[in-house]
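ping. complex inputs:
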Amino acid sequence: MRNGSTAERFRARLGIVTPWFGFQLSGGAEQQSWQLAHHLANAGYLVDVLTTCCASFNDDWAHNALPAGTQRSGNIVVKRFRVDKRDRRAFARVNAVLTGLRPEQLKRSVSPIGEDEARVFEEDNINSSALLRYLAADGASYRALVFIPYLYGPTLAALPAVADRAWLQPCLHDEPYAYLPAVRRTAHAARGILFNSAGELELAVSLFGPGIIKKSTLVGQGVEIPKDSGSFAERIGNFVPRSERYVLYLGRQDPRKNVGLLVHAFGEFRRRHPMSPLKLVLAGERSTSYGDTGKGIVDLGRVDETEKAALLAHSLALVQPSTMESYSRVMMESWLHGRPVVVNEQCEATATVVRETGGGLLAGTVSSWESMLYYVDVADSKALDAMGERGRLHALHSSSWPKVIEAYERALGLRVAGNGPRPRGLETIRQVSAGSAPLARHYADALTRTLERAQVRSFLSESPLAGSDDAPLVVHHTCGVVEEAAPLPARGAALICHAEAAATEQHQLACRATLSGAVASYGTAFGSTPSTVAELQAVGFDEPRFLPICVDPRDWDCDDDRPLAKALQDGCTNLVYVGPFNELESLDQLLTAFLHYLTLDRDSRLVLVARGEVDETIYGRVSAKVRSLDLVDRVLLARDIAEPQLQSVYRCAHLFWSLDEGNSLGEGFLQAMWFDVPIIAYKTEVSTRLVGDAGLLIADKSDLMAVAALAQIVVTDGELRRRIVRAQRTARACFDAETIARDLLDRLAVPGREPQEAH
Amino acid sequence: MLETRNPEIDVDALMLRLRSRVSELERGHDESLPGKTLALRNSVFINSLEAFINIADQKAQLRTQWPSHLGGPIFGSSKLRWLVLRALAFLFKDQRHVNEAFIAAFRESISLNRQLIEQVEILRKDHEILKKSVSESAAER
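pong. complex structure:
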């Protein structure tokens, strides 16, 4: 059900911010912003396009070719702002450095260029101070502002100024620009991020970390369904599509789109098969021509819509060699005409969908492109048609504009998910805790984010249990903490019991007595570890439930520690343990296993991060052991590290490795799952509950060489890693902070917001 | 020793693999890291050569569009622009052929180098297998 009438929709004013805007512009992002603006306007929204006076990407970015001001284009309003002067040469110099970088030189969270050069890229990009001033003054009048695409001034400079209502539609590719600090800042600043394809979303998470997952939405991209073939052009210059055998490249003829590779592969193909009538047709804007009729390469330059339709309909296949695609609109257009595609296997966005649908072929190297061209040339037309049909069915399903607009409405908060009226929640939930304040804060945050219009009042450290307040009371109790020896509140809706690993037998007895006394006064009970659940059951609570610690990836929606990230991406394999330091034996075993691992992979590093319960003596002994084994260069030992540093550790980790035997809260496991780090852990109650469905559990660690060999297999076997990570993604959803909060709310019978899923 | 409820992982197959890896380690066999490093270095080197040649190839193409930053009153006329582009195309026709020939030759050379590196790698692996079997038979004797 739509959340609001048509009249309400008319009131919602939306802005699309893009550097260039016009019907005639052929770039992917330009076409997307044009079509999105018109389709949103057709759906009833007031749409303003905020753009510059620069005519196109190919024009001088400091030249105001179009008049500034407001004009109406159909049912949208276009506001153009004058571009600023810029140092074109300085920008070109930095741009040349960036485009010359090879993929292996790019490291996550590390700027590929120096700070000064990065500043030149931002300041001498296409920029408009007038647009910035307008957004500062009138930005609040928009319900939502969509910034397309990510790498130009209007997005990099303006988005942070209106971050509370800014959605970034990055049109992201795996290219050097995506690694710039300004781009990371923008991605973290945006209220939401919209993606064209699943591959693009994957890339963004790998570049910006799991902090963006909760605010990301896969909206897809709409493509117009082709009209009747009677309206297609018969000929384009001297070229008659109907009577030719050709493969088609459609789009900007730019070296960055890998056209050179395609032309080279086609040349090789023609050299080996000189009698083949197959031609390569290039259609799209270009500054230099690749055309060579002698070699069968036909350059048609820019074509209009009817010519494009004719070329697509009569081609044997569309070829898309670019690795820099976030979606590839032309691929969908080709499929809508029932023609198969050949795409670059190194492009996540296009290759993923071709693999899934079977609507085409994949090629990477020159020789594989040559083989695919040969295949297309000699293949049975029925086989090509069948591939094209599979693609057509997918395109019809995924690129329909009504569905895409619906996804935008949901993402921008213009439409709510689910059916029926929203249940009214309680206004307040009270939480009380003395010794377990940080844990209680985790739950409080999760509850606040989950409850609809409600407020969680946490009384941490003190206990102002005002008698008049009848909101449900959630009490946190930690067994073994002296401060909690005080009696529990007389009545409460729920009791959450945590365990202190260092608790003495005397503490445990006291705790058991406290819990026994609370059985009759509390509606329901939860244990944050399996052992506390057993304890609650033992004292007489009816069906106590396991409620693991809340880990919310939104806490990492910020920059990580760049110097540390750079240091950890030096080519070494990073094996990581993050958790308590309260048991010497398991840490000792981990060090010995790592010594074995070093015999298998000399370029590896063990990162030990002490978090949670840290015993000073044990920490000191581990540190001494690292020195005595001469592993100072190979083992990074740290404690009390800040969140950005922890984020860097996880983002650069190849494996989470725990031989811990204690019943920790398992926070490290959940964090590793969010960072897609495969987990190998010693089998304990906690690891079985949290990791058992996805990662690998070691039941016997007597042979540490075998443990090391297992770690090496997981680190080096890409397919095994993928399987573990895939299952970990499913598992983490069960332990998501909102799912946990919902579990708690269900027991309290409090309705809350539907869990928000990252699409 | 190993457990998981992940339905996508065949624990028995993984255990088999682990045992074979451990017995391999106990026999003292290890893959040669320097070989891997060499292959990686060669591949990076060849890729950078290919990047250079792609730039050269792109720059060697016939220019058909006027550079957007070269405007002003002198080159404002589209007819003049067309004439200049045609004149440049005519003047540098021979040079273009020379460039194209060089680029083609260099591409062939890169392809040959790649093949040679692959062959060296195969030979290196053969050599290692041979060395291993010699040491095993010596141990048996």
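Chain B has a mean pLDDT of 81.
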